[in-house]
Design brief:
mainly beta; five-stranded antiparallel β-barrel; 1 helix; 5 strands; globular
Amino acid sequence: TDITNTEYVNYDIINVTKLEIADDTIILNVNSVKDIMIEDYFKVLNLSTNIMELRYLLLEPMKVIKIENNRLFFKTNYIMNATVVDDIEMKLLNVSNQNVLFFR
């Protein structure tokens, strides 16, 4: 369960099959959008690409702004050239579903 007491029965790591960049928007085609909500945060677990700009762009957690079919949309603070990577090997972790520790 998460902090809102929502129970998740599925694996919270998803595979990315395609990456697109258009202006300040990152669009990721994923294998499943089940249990993903707008404003969930995702962190890239692994990224096998030689495009150094993508490595820097995807370092920080990203917030979902739109879900359309099996596509997740994220805003970025950077404007990049239009890019499409079809053969990307990348996994995302939904960090919104992770445990949070509070210390007093």
